[in-house]
Design brief:
By secondary structure, the protein is α+β, with helices and mostly antiparallel strands. The protein contains 17 helices and 27 strands. The strands form six sheets. It has a seven-stranded mixed β-sheet. Strands 7, 8, 9, 14, 15 and 16 form a six-stranded mixed β-sheet that branches. The longest helix is centred in the C-terminal third of the chain and has 21 residues, at about 510-530. It starts with 16 loop residues before the first helix and ends with a helix. Bound molecules: dioxothiomolybdenum(VI) ion (MOS). Dioxothiomolybdenum(VI) ion (MOS) binds near residues 202 and 347.
Length: about 725
C-alpha cells in the first residue's frame, strides 16, 4: 500500500462541481413530490408579551388554504430534548406552544396551502391582537447574569495589581447572522406511519433524534435526507421550528409539506451570533511577556433560554483566550444578558472569531504601548503547549506560520508609526493577528463497497455526514481513490442520509478529520481481505481478478473513527498567521482591504482545491465580521431592521482582494491516520483584529467596536482632530 501519495493533498477537481453547475444537485427546496402543499408563517408583530386573540376566519376562506395551525390547535408533541445545547431546536420551547411571545417574528401561526403564494397571502389575512410588554434588545440595556463556569489559573488579581505594564480595554461585537445563501428549507412527507424529511441541515441524525422524540417514533422510522446544503455556517446545526411544524402539518393533512423560510424569517427565527462585550486586562513584563490575562465577557442570550436551569448558549470567547499565549495567571468570567431576541447559536468559529477579536486587538495595543513589534510580541508569548491544560501540542508550527506569512507579506518593511504610509489620497496600514482553531473529531463511520464492471473496479462510499458545500464529497473521493488506487472518477460518494452509516454533526471543523480516516480504514479492510487472494505477495492483480478468485460479486466494509482512539496526552490545535493591508481615504472613512496573506497549519491537507476554498472563504467571513456585518434591532419594538441581503451586508466580490493563502506541509499523525485537522473555520479567526490593527496603523484610530463602518471611523477621526 502506497503511504505517501500525490493525490492526498494535491489539487483536484471538486467531484460535486458538475452536478452543481448543471443544476442537478438537489437541495431540500428542490424536492417536488406529488400533491405537495406549501407552508407560510405569520411572525409576531411584538417582541415581548402575549397573543390575546388570533382570528383565522378570513385566512381560512382564502383560496387554496388547507390548514392553519396556531397555539390553539397545534396539538401535542412528545417530550422534546430541548435546551441541551446539542441537537435541538435553538428555541427552548417548541413552536406554537402557547400565547407567550419572546421575540419579534416568533411564529404565531402556520398556514398550509396549495401554493406558496396562497399560503403567504392567507397568512397576511390572520388577525392577531397582542398584549405588548416592554422589550429589551440591546446588550447594554439589560442586567447581566453570571455563568458558573469560570476557568482560571494562578492569581490573576494579584498579578494585575503588581504588573510593571498593564492594559485594560473593552472590545465589542454586534449581533451577527450566519445568513447562508440557501434559506432554511424542509419537505416533510409521511409514508404510512414513517416520516421522511428532506432538510437543509448540518446534522441528519440530530434532526432525526428530535423528530423521533416529537412523534414518539423509533429512530429507524424517521429518515432525514440532506445530500446538498447551500451554506449554513452554524445556522443549520439545530432542528428549527419550521422543520418540526412541516412534519406536524404533513401528518395532519396526509400530504407532503414544503416549508421554505423567507429571508427575513431566516434572520429573525434562526439563532444569530450573540452580541459581545469583552473586557481584556493584560499585565506584562517590560519585555512584553504576559504575566496576567483577565477576560470578562458579556454575551446576549434569549429571555426564554431557561437559564439558569438550562444552558442559555453563551458565545464561548474564553476558549481561545485561556489557551493561546503562555501566561501564568488567567481568569475568565462570563455573564449572559437575556434579551428579547431569538436564542443565539453557533456561527463561524464561535468563540474563536469573537475571542480573538478582543485578545488580538489588545495584543496589538500592548505592542504599541511597549514599543515592541506586534509580531515580536506574539513570539515572546508563544506557547508550545495548550497554556490552560498544559498538554503539549502533538503538532504545532505557529512560528513557521508567522515567519512565512511575514516573508510573503513583507512585514519587515513596516514602519510601525501610524499614518506613516500613504498612497495617493489613502492612508495605508498593515496589521496582523494569530489565527487558531482546535482540532476536533468525533465518532464516525463510512461504508466502502468495491464492485467491478466492464471498465474495471469502482468504489461506492456512503455516510450520513453532510457536505455543506465545503468539499466533503471531494475529500472522501480522494481518500478512497488513493487507498484503493482507483481513478477519482471511479469513486462515487453518497452523503447526507440518516440511513447511511452514522456520522457526527458537520460542525466545529470536525468532519474531514472524522470521516476521512474512517473511509481510509474501510479501504484498508477491503485491501487486506482481497490481497489475501493473491498467489504470492508480489503478484500484481486487478481488484476484479481478486474479487473473482474470492468468488465475490462485490466486497464491502465499514470503517470507523473513534474519538477515544485519539491519544489524550496531547492537545490538537490548528494555527495560522493573518497579515492584512488596508487603505483608508480619510475623507470617506471607508476601509478597503487591499491585501491579505494567511499562512496556516491545519495538519495534512486532503484536497488542496477545497482547502484553499475553505481558507479563503474564512478570510472573507472575517472581512465581513470586521467591516460589514451587524443585525440591528429597533430598540423600541425589537424589530430586526433591514433583515434582508440589502440590509444585512456581507462581502461581495468587489470587497474582496486577491487573498494569498497557503499552508504548511505538516501532518498531525497522532490525531488520526491521515494527520488531518480540518480547515473549515480557522480562516475567519484573527482577521477582524488584523484589519482593526491595520486601520490603526493607517489612521492612528483604534476602533474597538465592530463593524468598522465609515460613519464610525469618520466620527472617531473627527474626535481625534478635536483633541
Ligand atoms: Mo459551525 S459554526 O462549527 O457549525
Amino acid at each position: 500500500m502506497a503511504t505517501a501519495s500525490r493525490r492526498i493533498g494535491g489539487p483536484g477537481e471538486r467531484v460535486d462541481a458538475g452536478l452543481k453547475v448543471t443544476g442537478q444537485a438537489r437541495y431540500a427546496a428542490d424536492v417536488v413530490l406529488p400533491n405537495l402543499a406549501h407552508a407560510a408563517y405569520l411572525g409576531s408583530a411584538i417582541a415581548s408579551g402575549r397573543v390575546l386573540t388570533i382570528d383565522t376566519t378570513r385566512a381560512e376562506q382564502a383560496g387554496g388554504v388547507l390548514l392553519i395551525l396556531t397555539h390553539h390547535n397545534r396539538g401535542p408533541l412528545g417530550d422534546l430534548p430541548n435546551g441541551d445545547g446539542t441537537a435541538l431546536a435553538p428555541d427552548p420551547r417548541p413552536p406554537l406552544a402557547d400565547a407567550r411571545v419572546h421575540y419579534h417574528g416568533q411564529f404565531v401561526a402556520m398556514v398550509v396551502a396549495e401554493s406558496p403564494e396562497q399560503a403567504a397571502h392567507a397568512a397576511s389575512l390572520i388577525d392577531v391582537t397582542y398584549e405588548s410588554a416592554p422589550c429589551v434588545v440591546d446588550i447594554d440595556d439589560a442586567e447581566a447574569l453570571r455563568l458558573e463556569e469560570n476557568p482560571r489559573r494562578g492569581d490573576c488579581a494579584a498579578a494585575l495589581r503588581a504588573a510593571p505594564v498593564a492594559l485594560d480595554v473593552l472590545y465589542s461585537s454586534p449581533v451577527q447572522h450566519p445568513c447562508p445563501l440557501e434559506p432554511h428549507a424542509t419537505v416533510a412527507h409521511w409514508v404510512g406511519h414513517d416520516l421522511v424529511v428532506y432538510d437543509s441541515t448540518q446534522w441528519v441524525l440530530g434532526v432525526r433524534a428530535l423528530l423521533a422524540r416529537a412523534f414518539g417514533l423509533a429512530d429507524d422510522r424517521v429518515q432525514i435526507v440532506a445530500p446538498f446544503v447551500g451554506g449554513s455556517f452554524g445556522s443549520k446545526v439545530c432542528t428549527a421550528a419550521h422543520t418540526l411544524l412541516a412534519a406536524v402539518a404533513a401528518r395532519r393533512l396526509g400530504r407532503p409539506v414544503q416549508s421554505v423560510l423567507r429571508r427575513e424569517q431566516v434572520l429573525a427565527t434562526i439563532g444569530p451570533r450573540a452580541a459581545t462585550r469583552q473586557r481584556i486586562q493584560l499585565a506584562a513584563e517590560r519585555d512584553g511577556r504576559l504575566i496576567a490575562l483577565r477576560h470578562h465577557t458579556r454575551s446576549h442570550c434569549a429571555v426564554n433560554s431557561g437559564f439558569p436551569d438550562r444552558d442559555p448558549f453563551h458565545e464561548p470567547t474564553s476558549n481561545v483566550t485561556r489557551m493561546l499565549y503562555a501566561c501564568p495567571n488567567y481568569e475568565a468570567v462570563h455573564d449572559v444578558v437575556p434579551l428579547h431576541l431569538m436564542k443565539p447559536g453557533w456561527m463561524r468559529a464561535p468563540g474563536e472569531a469573537t475571542g480573538l477579536w478582543a485578545l488580538e486587538g489588545a495584543m496589538d495595543e500592548l505592542a504599541y504601548q511597549l514599543g515592541v513589534d506586534p509580531l515580536e510580541l506574539r513570539l515572546r508569548n508563544h506557547s508550545a503547549r495548550n497554556a490552560h491544560t498544559g498538554k503539549p501540542y502533538a503538532g504545532e508550527h505557529l512560528r513557521e506560520c508567522y515567519e512565512r506569512g511575514a516573508e510573503r507579506f513583507g512585514w519587515a518593511r513596516r514602519d510601525p508609526r501610524p499614518r506613516s504610509m500613504r498612497e495617493g489620497d489613502a492612508f495605508v496600514g498593515w496589521g496582523l493577528a494569530t489565527a487558531t482553531h482546535p482540532g476536533n473529531s468525533d465518532d464516525a463511520s463510512v461504508r466502502v463497497r468495491l464492485d467491478c464492471d466492464s471498465r474495471g473496479a469502482y468504489a461506492s462510499v456512503a455516510t450520513a455526514g453532510v457536505d455543506l458545500g465545503t468539499g466533503l464529497y471531494t475529500a472522501l473521493a480522494v481518500v478512497v481513490a488513493d487507498a484503493l488506487e482507483l481513478p477519482l472518477a471511479r469513486v462515487h460518494v453518497e452523503l447526507g442520509d440518516s440511513r447511511l452509516p452514522p456520522a457526527p454533526v458537520t460542525g466545529g471543523s470536525n468532519l474531514t478529520a472524522s470521516l476521512a480516516p474512517a473511509a481510509r480504514a474501510a479501504c484498508l479492510q477491503l485491501r487486506r481481505r482481497l490481497l489475501g487472494f493473491r498467489r504470492d505477495p508480489d503478484e500484481v492483480a486487478e481488484w476484479g481478478e481478486l474479487l473473482a478468485r474470492a468468488g465475490l460479486g462485490h466486497i464491502e466494509a465499514i470503517g470507523a473513527s473513534e474519538s477515544r482512539a485519539v491519544p489524550e496526552q496531547y492537545a490538537y490545535q490548528s494555527f495560522g498567521a493573518q497579515f492584512v493591508e488596508v487603505r483608508v481615504v480619510p475623507e470617506l472613512g471607508q476601509v478597503r482591504v487591499t491585501r491579505v496573506v494567511g499562512v496556516f497549519d491545519v495538519g495534512q491537507v486532503v484536497n488542496a482545491t477545497a482547502t484553499r476554498n475553505q481558507l479563503i472563504g474564512g478570510i472573507v467571513f472575517g472581512l465581513g465580521q470586521a467591516l460589514l456585518e451587524q443585525l440591528v434591532h429597533d430598540p423600541a419594538r425589537g424589530v430586526p431592521v433591514g433583515a434582508d441581503l440589502s440590509g444585512y451586508l456581507i462581502p461581495v466580490h468587489a470587497d474582496v482582494p486577491d487573498i494569498d493563502v497557503s499552508w504548511l506541509d505538516a501532518p498531525d499523525p497522532a490525531f488520526n491516520s491521515l494527520g488531518c485537522r480540518g480547515a473549515g473555520e480557522i480562516g475567519i479567526t484573527g482577521v477582524a483584529a488584523a484589519i482593526a490593527s491595520a486601520v490603526h496603523h493607517a489612521t492612528g484610530i483604534r476602533v474597538r467596536d465592530l463593524p468598522i463602518t465609515p460613519e464610525r471611523l469618520l466620527a472617531d477621526m473627527a474626535d481625534e482632530r478635536e483633541k
